[in-house]
Structure formats: C-alpha cells, structure tokens
Amino acid sequence: MQILMPKPLSAATFAPFGDVLEAMGSFRLINDGLCHRHHDLARLDTTDARPGISIFQAEPRALPYDFNLVERHPEGSQAFVPMTQNPFLVIVAPDMGGRPGRPLAFLTNGAQAINLHRGTWHGVLTPLAAPGLFAVIDRIGTSPNLEEYRYPSAFRVTAEQPAAAQS
Fold this sequence. Notes:
Blueprint: E1 2-4, E2 7-8, H1 11-14, E3 18-21, E4 28-30, E5 35-37, E6 50-57, E7 65-72, E8 78-82, E9 88-93, E10 104-107, E11 113-116, E12 121-122, E13 126-127, E14 133-140, E15 147-157, H2 163-166
C-alpha cells in the first residue's frame, strides 16, 4: 500500500486541479459596508447542460483513510462547498493519457471550498467530521458525466509519516 501525506490546501498547490474558494485576498464592500464580497472565485464549466446546486450528505471518514477509487466528470466542473466549518480531505490525481496518475491529498482548513476543473480525477467526497453536509455545484444534464477508475492497489492517507521514512 502506498502512503500519502495530505498537504494543506492552498490556491497555488491546487491550481492544476481546480480553484480554492475562501475569503482571502481582494474584496469589495456590499450591504451598506457590512459584507465583504470575494467576487467570481471559480469558473463553472459545463457542456450542453446547466449548472445546478445539490446537497450531499457524506459519511465522515477518519485518518488513516484507505482508497483505490477515483472519478472524473468530463462534461463539467464540480464545486464542493461545506455547510459546516470542519476540514475535509481532498484527493486529486493528474491525468496521464486518460488514466489517473499518482494521487495527491490535501486537507482543507475548515473555511475553504473547492471547485474541481472539468475532467479532473478526484477522490470521493471525504468529510472528516459529521454531519458531512456539502452544497455541490455541478453539471445537470442528460448525457453521462462520470468516469471511474480503480487503482490496482490501495493508497493510504495518513496524518503521520511512515516509520521507514522517518529514519
């Protein structure tokens, strides 16, 4: 089993896979000066369909977390906006000629959401605390928009460095 250590999620490290949505950087004041609007933080990208908003309720997982399944949506981007301030795990992988490469793991800080670019290989929704509620903004259409891939062996995401790597 291969071990992955999650990195803190940041806009720079996540850029090849999607957008980080957080209340950082420039803003404009609205609502009589009582609200900061961080404007247009992600590009919703769909083909022959419309963007829609759904609510997902995923079962919480814990670290270490083992997985071998990733998926992608070739016809549209997909944003995960947590409805609580709990960190969640984000797993992504580069595309290697139509198959996912070695995955990377990121850990949100509890005040971040993500928007996966269209066609980005990613793990399933992985909250680390209950209730696991997310608003999901993605493509609503009639044609298929899901490709799944199972790695031949599992990966383990852990918060601790393996003993062999520590020496």
